[in-house]
Amino acid sequence: MTSTFVNDLRLNEMATGDQSGSWGTVTNTNLELIGEAFGYGTEAITTNADTHTTTIADGATDAGRSMFLKYTGTLDSACTITIGPNTVNKMWFIENATTGSQNIIISQGSGANITIAAGQTKAVYSDGAGAGAAFVDAFAALNVAGVSPTELAILDGVTATTAEINILDGVTATTAELNILDGVTSTAAELNLVDGSTAGTIVNSKAVIYSSGGQVNGTSLAIAGTAVTSTAAELNILDGVTATAAELNYNDITTLGTSEASKVVTADANGDVNLAEELKAKSYNETYLAVTSSGGATTVNCETGNTFSHTLTEDTTFTFSNPPASGTGYSFTLKIVQDSTARTITWPSSVDWAAATAPTISTGSGEVDVFVFFTTDGGTTFYGFTAGQVLS
C-alpha cells in the first residue's frame, strides 16, 4: 500500500505496513510540517504576473502551508493567487507585501475570492470544497467584546494620538450627547477657542459667550479697549450685506466730492463732483456702437452709448429711442458711411436742423459724414448739427 496526502496539511499518511524502516523519519517530517503550519512563510510572485499558483507540497516543506503567509514581488496590475489543492480546508493570515500598489486576489476554486490591498493583511480560510471552493474573510463579522465590525470601522483613518483619545477616558456624556459632534467640521484649533471661555466674561484669544442675561462683563462689549456705542438697529444695517471687504473699501474716500482712483465717486455738500489732479490728465471715454438697418429702418438707442456709426446698405429712416427724461442733457455723435450705391436718409421729425433744413448727405462710395445731436427735453426736440462731410 502507498502513502496518501489527503489531509489539510498535506502530511504523509502511511498505510499499514508502509514506510518500513523509514517510519520514524516520515513521522519526524510530519511533526516538522505541523510546526511549519503554525509558522511564518514568504513566497515571491513573478514580476508583473497577473496570476500565481501556490500549491502546498505533499509531505515536504512549503511556504504555502504556513499560518502567516507573506507574498512579495513587484506588480503592475492585480494578481489572482490560486492556493491549492482545492480540497484543503485551512486558515491563513495573508499579507500583501508586494510593491506597485496593486491588490492580490486570493482564490481556491470557482467560489468567492478575497481581495487584499497592498500593505494590508487579512485573516482568511478556505472551505476546501473542490472545484467550487471559496475563500472567506474570517474577521468580516468579528465581534470583540460586543463591538461590531461597523463600530470598529469608525476607527479606520483615525489620526488622533493615544493622549488625545484618552481625553475621552472618564467621559460621562451619553451617546446622544457625543453624537452632537457628528458632522462638525471645525478644526481642533477652532474648537479650542471655547476652551477656557467663561459665560459673561471676555477672555483673550477665546470665544465670547454671553451670560444668561445677554451681557458680557455686565456692561457693553469693548473691542481693542474702545467701547462700542452702536445700537442694535445700527448694527442690523449690515444684516444681509453680501459685499466683500474689498468692495466695501471702495467707499473709503479721503474727501467728499473729490474723485480718487479705485474709489466710488461722491458729490460734496453742494452737489459738485471734482476730479482729483491725477485724474484730470486722464482721457474721457464714450461707448461706441455700430447700428444697422433692417427693412428700411435704423434705431439709435440713446441708452446704449454716445457715439454711433452706421454704414448705409439701403434707403433708411432713423429713429432715436430711449433718451433721458426731460431736464437731463444728452448728446450723441453719429458717423454715416455711404454705400457704393448712393442711399438716402429720412431723419426723425423731432430733429430741428438749422434753418429747418436737413443736410444733404454725401453720395460718393465710402464717403463719411458726421452729425451731432442733443436734447434736453426727453427727446421731444433733438437739435441737429453737421460736424463734417465728405470725410472719406
Give a verbal description of the structure.
This protein has 392 residues and is an alpha/beta fold. The chain folds into 4 domains: 1-167, no CATH class; 193-241, no CATH class; 251-284, no CATH class; 288-388. Helices cover 11% and strands 24% of the residues. The chain has 8 helices and 21 strands. The strands form 5 sheets. It has a 6-stranded mixed beta sheet with strand order 12-15-17-20-21-19, with no helix packed on it. The chain has a 5-stranded mixed beta sheet with strand order 1-3-5-8-9, with no helix packed on it. The longest helix has 15 residues, at 23-37. The N and C termini lie far apart (120 Å). The model has no long low-confidence stretch (mean pLDDT 87).
Question: Topology, pairings included?
Answer:
Blueprint: H1 23-37, E1 40-44, E2 51-55, E3 68-72, E4 79-84, E5 91-96, E6 104-107, E7 114-116, E8 121-126, E9 135-137, H2 149-153, H3 162-165, H4 175-178, H5 188-191, E10 222-223, E11 226-227, H6 232-235, H7 245-248, H8 277-280, E12 288-290, E13 293-294, E14 297-301, E15 307-311, E16 316-321, E17 330-337, E18 345-346, E19 351-353, E20 368-375, E21 382-388
Parallel strand pairs: 1-3, 2-4, 3-5, 4-6, 12-15, 14-16, 15-17, 16-18, 19-21
Antiparallel strand pairs: 5-8, 6-7, 8-9, 10-11, 13-14, 17-20, 20-21
Overall structural domain count: 4
Number of strands: 21
For the record, give the distance between the C-alpha atoms at the N and C termini, rounded to a whole number: 120 Å
The low-confidence parts are none
Describe the biggest sheet?
6 strands, mixed
- String of helices and strands: HEEEEEEEEEHHHHEEHHHEEEEEEEEEE
Work out the helicity level.
10-25%
Total DSSP helices: 8
Question: Over the alpha carbons, how many angstroms does the gyration radius reach?
Answer: 46 Å
